[in-house]
Q: What sequence folds into this?
């Protein structure tokens, strides 16, 4: 076959130099036609749109054409032609076809309309569907938007460790990392495991958050962000939890909780706008296929500012709702850790806008949050979103050495793991704030998908580490 340099379908569909010889490569989505002519819809992943390949059957070997089945991989040389019926401006009139890979009828993606559950079982092939192509292109674009946002604001991308000996959130939901022989674990007289012989000489785990190390960096470089995988061994089988997820954690010296809220709102609006501006074909596809309100919801977040409300006020609204007969599955009272149904009530029913809830009871938040004067609440902020609930969690940090130390002791956090963190408060302490955005929660919002397992290529959840 004549060597012509390949044009991606995303580029090809924009071209108007009809009559030119081109080469396209990709996977067959469908083939239809008559005795004289075949129409092959081909996709190469560069765009949601297929290119139509028109095959004049008389010019090709019949046996070879039989091998062009759904899922087969082709390289096609042909003439770029103005299209009349394909829904696109351009199509390709095939001159030469090479079959790079055949695909027999055991290919599971023959028919359209598979359930999301079934597609999760074939997560190795699901990127070839329109839906997952769209989701993963959007995923890439959101990662770029995030780096661009922070880079343009002068934040430094800081790499925090994945293996750690400290439990940032203090929730004990960590996966252990060990090279010890689990079949021959030595315990001391108290029944405790002696980690001194383990790889790191102490108990180590996969990180639940890069924040603590992020704070070290922010109190030196001024403004940083992390963007990496985080791990939580929480046994919650919900459509919003993963055991392995990606988190973005900005941390800024001298920012108070109000600056923090402003940053969070600006950041998330930037990401949503980026999706509308740069991924419109994919977002539109998902809007039309799954969720007719998606684009409206995305635009809705951009208009107007987020509601800012203290936790105590939020509880009053929820209690009022209960008094008026609204049924929640979980109880509402001051001190409760809000469930997603409560968060969504505030956002979707009451305010009809994103809400930043602040000043939570200290008992339900992590040790590092700045304590309020009332002795009961901390300067926490959760950003609550329609359909999602909590999308961001953050706070102003406790900058006072003594207060922080007292809290660490109250919560029985092992001091030997925390000395380096406390040093930031000992040596030139400063007010500072930050937050964490769950990358997959953002993607749930932007794609309108209803299960977090469908916005990450290979989800890790309880009882599932396939692929
Ligand atoms: O609220 P979280 O636990 O806060 C932290 O980890 C802080 N260290 C962040 C900070 O202040 N730097 O988690 C932050 C966000 C949540 O709002 C949620 O979007 C996401 O991370 N998240 C999860 N996403 C998917 N699966 C899980 N199991 C998640 N747990 C938290
Ligand atoms: Mg949280």
A:
């Amino acid at each position: 076959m004549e060597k012509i340099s390949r044009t991606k379908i995303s580029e090809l569909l924009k071209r108007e130099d009809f009559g030119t010889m081109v080469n396209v490569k990709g996977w067959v989505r469908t083939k239809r036609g008559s005795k004289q002519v075949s129409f092959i819809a081909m996709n190469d992943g560069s765009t949601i749109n297929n290119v139509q390949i028109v095959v004049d059957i008389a010019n090709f070997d019949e046996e070879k054409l039989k091998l062009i089945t759904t899922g087969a991989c082709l390289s096609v040389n042909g003439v770029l032609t103005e299209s009349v019926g394909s829904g696109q401006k351009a199509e390709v009139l095939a001159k030469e076809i090479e079959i790079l890979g055949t695909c027999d009828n055991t290919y599971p993606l023959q028919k359209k309309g598979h359930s999301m559950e079934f597609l999760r079982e074939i997560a190795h092939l699901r990127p070839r569907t329109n839906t997952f192509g769209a989701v993963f292109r959007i995923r890439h674009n959101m990662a770029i938007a995030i780096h661009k946002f922070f880079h343009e604001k002068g934040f430094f991308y800081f790499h925090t460790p994945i293996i750690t000996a400290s439990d940032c959130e203090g929730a004990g939901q960590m996966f252990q990392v060990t090279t010890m022989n689990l079949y021959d674990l030595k315990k001391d007289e108290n029944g405790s495991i002696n980690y001194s012989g383990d790889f790191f000489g102490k108990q180590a785990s996969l990180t639940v958050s890069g924040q603590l190390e992020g704070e070290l960096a922010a109190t030196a470089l001024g403004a940083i962000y992390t963007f990496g995988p985080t791990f939580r061994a929480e046994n919650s089988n919900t459509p919003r939890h993963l055991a392995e997820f990606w988190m973005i954690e900005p941390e800024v010296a001298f920012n108070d909780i109000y600056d923090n809220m402003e940053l969070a709102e600006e950041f998330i609006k930037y990401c949503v706008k980026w999706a509308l501006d740069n991924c419109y074909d994919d977002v539109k596809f998902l809007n039309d296929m799954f969720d007719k309100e998606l684009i409206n919801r995305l635009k809705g977040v951009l208009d107007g500012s987020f509601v800012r409300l203290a936790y105590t006020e939020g509880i009053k609204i929820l209690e009022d709702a209960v008094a008026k007969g609204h049924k929640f599955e979980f109880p509402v009272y001051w001190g409760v850790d809000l469930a997603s149904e409560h968060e969504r009530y505030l956002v979707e029913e009451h305010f009809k806008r994103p809400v930043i809830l602040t000043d939570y009871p200290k008992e339900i938040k992590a040790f590092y949050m700045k304590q309020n004067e009332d002795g009961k609440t901390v300067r926490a902020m959760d950003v609550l979103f329609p359909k999602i609930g909590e999308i961001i969690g953050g706070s102003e940090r406790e900058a006072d050495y003594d207060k922080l130390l007292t809290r660490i002791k109250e919560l029985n956090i092992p001091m030997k793991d925390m000395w380096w963190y406390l040093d930031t408060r000992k040596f030139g302490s400063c007010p500072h704030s930050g937050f964490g955005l769950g990358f997959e929660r953002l993607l749930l919002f932007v794609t309108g998908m209803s299960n977090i397992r469908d916005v990450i290529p290979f989800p890790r959840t309880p009882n599932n580490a396939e692929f």
In short: The mean pLDDT is 96.
